[in-house]
Write a structure and sequence with these properties.
Elements lengths: L1 H25 L11 H25 L2 H4 L7 H10 L3 H14 L4 H13 L3 H14 L3 H20 L8 H14 L4 H13 L3 H12 L5 H11 L1 H7 L5 E4 L1 E3 L2 E8 L2 E7 L7 E3 H6 L5 E10 L2 E15 L2 E11 L9 E3 L1 H4 L2 E6 L4 E6 L2
Parallel strand pairs: 4-9, 5-8
Antiparallel strand pairs: 1-11, 2-3, 3-4, 3-7, 5-9, 6-7, 7-8, 10-11
Helix pairs in contact: 4-5, 5-6, 6-7, 8-9, 9-10, 10-11, 10-12, 11-12
Length: 367
């Protein structure tokens, strides 16, 4: 009995051991049998790790510092520009004035302020600000661009009195100030010539017209202006009849007798000259003729020459007397040949014909 009991226990233990072994086998993950080879697993793992690393690196390289860095506070000038962009002009003016209190020579702030004041219709303040800018700008190109703009701005104000209600005297003063900075601006000279003519200041009108005639861009218009300047004076001293002036042959050219300050002089007839004048040698001998000299850079065939314009009390030509007439000092030394040039500024005030055969200058009053 004891023996049979032992056999039963042994069989039972074996059975339990078998079932336990089968149970453990059943609990193993089935996917383990399908894992890839170790080499492939490492390669795949490396690829899956490296790709995001490359993408991250590329993203960092392509990101601008402005995006990568935290937002920075705008500068005072940038804030003013933002206000202008939003049409907040009063606030922009205040901001720009604050900048200029700290640095009066901030050219960028001055430029912005001038533009904003113009937009607000505060033209006197705008022009004043432009001149502040011009007085400190050292960049030649920027200075030239600014003077050109201010020139157009002032002319626009003159020609549109509805835009600007202040006196023409103030505008004339600004034009004169700008002329000092850009003396070769023919457009400004023409504008001033017209303003002075309307104010019945013939001397200044003639001066600025001659300055404009010295510039290629405004020469034709200036000559037309000069031709009309003394129409009434010529009409009062002449009739509709043709007058003749006997010329003196000088090679293939002609000399014209003209009386200046009571003295007869011989002037070379030159229809290509915009400005009449006396030679430097003649002026040296007769300097008492020179009154109210004004500097000019004469544009000649050989280049630009520093000279001056001056007023003579009386000039008589073709039976007409021109009072307070302006002439130029010409860079010529012709002691025995001729005393100066007779140009379009005088000839253009007549309708004229040069008779080459008879050596005559025939003139009529302009119609």
């Amino acid at each position: 009995m004891s023996f049979q009991k032992n056999i039963f226990i042994a069989i039972a233990a074996f059975g339990l051991g078998f079932y336990a072994s089968e149970y453990r086998h059943a609990q193993q993950p089935q996917s383990i049998a399908y894992l890839p080879a170790p080499e492939n697993t490492i390669s795949s793992a490396q690829t899956s790790v490296q790709s995001p690393a490359i993408e991250t690196s590329t993203a960092i390289q392509n990101t601008s510092p402005a995006l990568a860095a935290p937002a920075q506070e705008l500068s005072a000038l940038e804030q003013a520009q933002q206000l202008i962009a939003n049409n907040a002009f009063p606030a922009a003016v205040q901001a720009l004035n604050e900048i200029l209190k700290k640095n009066p020579n901030d050219t960028e702030a001055l430029l912005l302020l001038a533009r904003v004041l113009e937009k607000q219709g505060k033209h006197e303040d705008a022009v004043t600000t432009w001149f502040r800018y011009l007085n400190i700008e050292v960049d030649a190109k920027k200075f030239q661009e600014a003077t050109a703009y201010v020139s157009r701005y002032l002319i626009r104000l003159v020609n549109n009195p509805g835009i600007f209600g202040s006196s023409r005297e103030w505008l004339m003063a600004q034009l004169n100030d700008l002329i000092k900075l850009t003396p070769d601006n023919g457009e400004l000279h023409l504008q001033l010539a017209d303003m002075h003519a309307k104010a019945d200041d013939q001397e200044q009108a003639q001066y600025h017209a001659l300055m404009a005639a010295n510039q290629d861009e405004t020469r034709t218009r200036a000559e037309e202006f000069l031709a009309k300047l003394t129409d009434n004076t010529i009409a009062e001293q002449t009739d509709d009849q043709e007058s003749k002036v006997q010329l003196i042959r000088f090679g293939k050219q002609f000399l014209v007798p003209v009386v200046v300050e009571g003295k007869t002089v011989k002037l070379l007839l030159d229809t290509g000259a915009s400005i009449s004048g006396l030679t430097s040698s003649f002026i040296n001998r007769n300097y008492s003729f020179v009154k109210s000299p004004k500097p000019i850079q004469l544009n000649t065939a050989s280049g630009t020459v520093d000279s001056f314009l001056f007023v003579v009390d009386s000039l008589q030509f073709a039976g007409v007397t021109f009072n307070k007439h302006m002439l130029a000092r010409l860079p010529m030394d012709n002691y025995d040949n001729f005393d100066g040039l007779l140009g379009v500024d005088i000839l253009g005030r007549f309708e004229f014909i040069i008779d080459q055969e008879k050596a005559e200058l025939r003139l009529r009053t302009r119609k």
